[in-house]
Amino acid sequence: RNQNALTLPDYFTHRFEDTSRLLRIFSALVILVFFTIYCASGVVAGARLFESSFGVPYEYALWIGAAATILYVFIGGFLAVSWTDTVQATLMIFALLITPVFVILALGDMGAAMDTIATHNPAAFDMFSGLSFVAIISLLAWGLGYFGQPHILVRFMAADSVRTIPNARRIGMAWMILTLAGAVAVGFFGIAYFAGHPEQAGPVSENGERVFMELVKLLF
After folding, report:
1. I need a labelling partner for 54 at 20 to 30 A (CA). Which of 128, 143, 158, 189 fits?
2. How many CA atoms lie within 13 A of 199 on its CB side?
3. Radius of gyration of the chain (CA)
4. What pTM does this model have?
């Protein structure tokens, strides 16, 4: 029915029998525009990691990260991307769940961490503190848009059999819940750690995106 579609624009074209090709062009343009921004954020994150871990200047780190990604995609295609995603996902879930635990241990206990956060940044306990209209729209775009993101849907399209989809869905959702919770916990308890160790807070004060990388360097 879908003529072995390999991409979402292909799928939409065959699924809705769009002979005008307008659906293909429109969906391809949407992916191109918004995924350029999405991929840019990933390249920035990689550059920050290189900058923080190896002392590489940010501008050079951008080019190194982009070149590495382009290289393995050209060499291995979709399979290479799937394998690197698997390795990265495994590292992420362990790192993001273990790091908050070590932060709490370094501070003494959960109660001490909470008291420190309450003293230094009580607004951190309010999820909706300081939210603007644009911020709310942005959160909705991430949350509601996640179900239609092409790089996630093509993983399901590449499944060996429809029978594997329920397990894939459970694994995907469990991983997402745990990693997002871990990421929030890293930022949350990072407030307490750097409040108690202001002499180590320089890089994080300069750029809050470094909180995870700095905690990993200091605690491990």
Report:
1. 189
2. 0
3. 21
4. 0.75
Name the nearest CA neighbour of 150 among 14, 4, 2, 35: 35
Question: Which tokens go with 15?
Answer: 């699924």
Rounded CA separation 195/72 (Å) = 41
59-103 per-position pLDDT tens digit: 999 998 889 889 988 999 888 988 888 998 999 899 999 999 999
Q: Is the dihedral of CA 157, 163, 166, 168 positive or negative?
A: negative
Token representation of residue 27: 């969906």
What DSSP string describes the chain? --TT--SHHHHHHHHTT-TT-HHHHHHHHHHHHHHHHHHHHHHHHHHHHHHHHH---HHHHHHHHHHHHHHHHHHHHHHHHHHHHHHHHHHHHHHHHHHHHHHHHHHSSHHHHHHHHHHH-GGGG-TTTT--HHHHHHHHHHHHHGGG-HHHHHHHHT-S-GGGHHHHHHHHHHHHHHHHHHHHHHHHHHHHHHHH-GGG-HHHHH-GGGHHHHHHHHH-
Task: Write out the two tokens for 91.
Answer: 């590292």
Q: Angle at the Cα of 216 (from 94 to 181), degrees rounded to 5? A: 45
Closest CA to 51 of 69, 64, 68, 67: 64
Other CB atoms within 10 Å distance of the CB of residue 34: 14
